Structure formats: structure tokens, C-alpha cells
Amino acid sequence: VRSMPKEEKEYELIQQLDEDVMASLHELNKSATTLPSPITPRVKVFGSSLEGFEDVPSGLLEKEMESTEEGCRDGYAKTKKVLGAGVYGTVYEVEKKIHEKWYKRRQRQRGFALKIPKGDRGIRSTQKEMAVLDDVGTCKGVLSMIDKSPCVDGKKMPNSYVTKMYAGDLHKWSKVTPIMTRVHCYQTVFSQVAAGLTCMHEKGWIHNDVKAANILYEGLDDKGCPEGLVLADFGISYKIGSPISPFNEEDYMSAFYIVESLFYGMKDPLKIVRSFELENGGAMLLPTAIPKIDLCSAAFMIYRIWNYKEPALQKLMGAGTCGPMGPGRTQLFP
Ligand SMILES: Nc1ncnc2c1ncn2[C@@H]1O[C@H](COP(=O)(O)OP(=O)(O)OP(=O)(O)O)[C@@H](O)[C@H]1O
Questions:
Q1: What distance in angstroms lies between residue 310's CA and the mean position of ligand 1's atoms?
Q2: Alpha-carbon distance 324 to 322, whole Å?
Q3: Is 169 helix (H, G, I), strand (E, B) or coil?
Q4: Of 12, 75, 82, 87, which has the highest C-beta tally within 10 A?
Q5: pTM
Q6: Measured between alpha carbons, how far is 206 from 224 in angstroms, rounded to an integer?
Q7: How far is residue 140's CA from residue 274's CA, in Å, rounded to a whole number?
Q8: Measured on CA atoms in the order 246, 248, 251, 255, is the torsion positive or negative?
């Protein structure tokens, strides 16, 4: 018996993904229909800066850097290892200092990560993240916050938070993992991502920045598949039903993809754009935070990681639905 050539086997495996993808997306969609009713949109005076839609009170921001000078004891110590650096923050490995009375000496527990914001925008973003994590941090499949405003190397860090340290993110994993292994891991990866998203949605939030680099994993199972997956990076998450500020470069430069039509102002098949009544009686068309935004992003991530181009998924992602983000399409809101 002739053994199946590698390409044919790959093709067959990828074909198999079709049913799995659609079933999982359908599950996610179903959960989206049983969500809590949308909150009353928080909108500012017509024509004001759209930064106003942020959920985080900006009064807290000014204090940030100075108050890190405040002395404190115990807490955490930074190691030399940087786990990741984004536009608005850096993630460091830290160790927890444990006072061991019995031996009268300090011991350190390894395996923690500390996110420190960069600049005002980064501060707003981590404050937002902490507020979101207060709500969704108990979800399986979502990063949980171990400490807020921790003491690090003797300084209070009011706008930072500590989480468990993870082995890596899905983006890096996909870059070093051959297609055959990736294909075998599809189901376990996607079901873990779906679990995290479903729980966030049930608690009334959309992640809004679903991409492989924002999904962390604890380790690899015996087949080389990532396990213990969690969604991370909640800097641009929104309450379901709230208006999303129109796309500006600052918000979406690092975002991977979002509904394409919003940028071209043509079609809106997912009904993401809605008219919002503003305080002064005016109305404005704004995109609404709905779970389908995450769904599109998840579908697009699958396409990127698994090079999956079946027609059913292509339809979901095609023109007028979900598409890749990029700096070139930031100001084209209808
Ligand atoms: N708890 C963690 N354990 C291990 N690595 C982590 C952890 N948190 C973040 N990282 C790494 O740091 C990277 C950046 O983290 P995160 O996305 O939270 O920061 P960010 O500044 O918002 O980044 P971005 O600009 O990509 O949105 C991640 O892609 C991941 O590789």
C-alpha cells in the first residue's frame, strides 16, 4: 500500500478543520445570543474627544510615576529577564519574596510576571486591564491577576499588576512549530481559546484584541500542543453593548484585525455599527462592542496559524466582515 504523500496528508488534515472550526464558532455564537443585556452606553458630549469613551477615570493618571517612589517592604523582586515588550508596556519576570521566619532568611518564589506600563497611554491601558481582570480574572482560559499595585524592589507600583509567568505566547509557538504539529493541536488550542472568550462574554466583556501574541500558554503537552491557555492583554477590552471609540492609530496600531467594513464605511453585515444617542440629543454612528468582534478575530487567528483557507471561513473573514488591521486603514471610519 502506497503511503500518503505529505502534502495530501496535510490537505486532508486541513480539510478536517472545516467542521471543527464551524462547530466551535457556532458554539461561540450561540453563547453570544444569551448574553446579559447591553449596558447603557457611556457617551460624552457630542464632538468631544473620543478618548472620553474610555472606562478608566483619567484623574488617576497624573500621580502614577511619582507614587512609584513610595517605599514599601516585601513583595516582589525583578529578575533580569524581560518576558515581552509592547508599545505601551513591558512584562518582566519577578520573584516573590517570602519571609521565612523559621530560618530567619528571605526566600524567593519564582514564576511570576509583572506588567509595567509605558507612558500615559500605557497607564490608562493597565488601569483598564486591572478593572477588566477584576471582573473576568476568575474565568478559566483568562489570565488571572495575582497582585494589583504590588511592591517591587522596595517601590510601590500603583499601575502595575502581577500574574503567573507563562511559558510563551501562541504567536511565538506558531512560528517555531511545523504545520503538521500545528494541525494536530488545532482542536485543543481552539477549544481553550473558545472557553476563555465564552466566559468573558458571559461576564459582559469583549476582549477586542484577540490575536496569537495575546494568548499565553503554561507549557506543552506530550504531543507538543500548548496547554493551560489564557487570554491576556485587556487594554482595549469593552463592556458588551458600549460604543467603541472610532479607530485611531493609537488604539489599533497593535491590534491585529477588526471588521474591515468599518474602515471602508461600506457594508456592515455583522451589524456592529449602531446609532448612539448622545447626551445633548445628537446621534452618532459608532461601532458597538459585541462578541462577534472577538469571533472574527478568533477566526482570523485560525487562518493565520493554521493557514486555513476553506470557503466557509473565508466567507466569515472576507470583504465586509473581518479583515487584517494595519496602520493604513485607521482613519476610514464611515
Ligand atoms: N504572564 C506572562 N508570562 C510570560 N510572558 C508574558 C506574560 N505576559 C506577557 N508576556 C509576554 O509579553 C508579551 C506582551 O505582553 P502584553 O500583550 O500583555 O503587553 P502589551 O504591552 O499590551 O503588548 P502589545 O503591544 O503586543 O499589545 C506577550 O506577547 C508575551 O509574549
A1: 31
A2: 7
A3: strand
A4: 75
A5: 0.77
A6: 30
A7: 31
A8: positive
Question: What per-residue confidence (pLDDT) applies to 329?
Answer: 45
Q: How big is the chain by its Cα radius of gyration, in Å?
A: 21
Q: What are 20-71's pLDDT values in tens digits?
A: 555 555 555 554 444 333 333 333 323 333 333 333 333 333 333 434 456 7
The type of residue at 170 is L
Whole-angstrom Cα distance, residue 86 to residue 184? Answer: 30
Phi and psi at residue 87, in whole multiples of 5°?
Answer: -70, -35
Q: Does pLDDT of 249 surpass 70? A: no
Determine which helix (DSSP H) or strand (DSSP E) holds 117, and give its type and residue range: strand 105-117
| Percentage with pLDDT > 70 across the chain | 61
Chain position carrying cell 491576556: 232
Cβ of 163 below 6 Å from ligand 1:
yes
Q: Which amino acid is at 222?
A: D
Q: Which of 169, 217, 301 to probe ligand 1 with, by most ligand atoms within 8 A of CB?
A: 169
Nearest CA to ligand 1 atom 4: 166
Q: Evaluate: CB of 215 within 6 angstroms of ligand 1.
A: no
Closest-CA residue, ligand 1 atom 21, reads 86
Annotated binding-site ranges: 115
Backbone φ and ψ of 12, nearest 5°: -60, -45
Question: Averaged over 267-277, what is the pLDDT?
Answer: 73
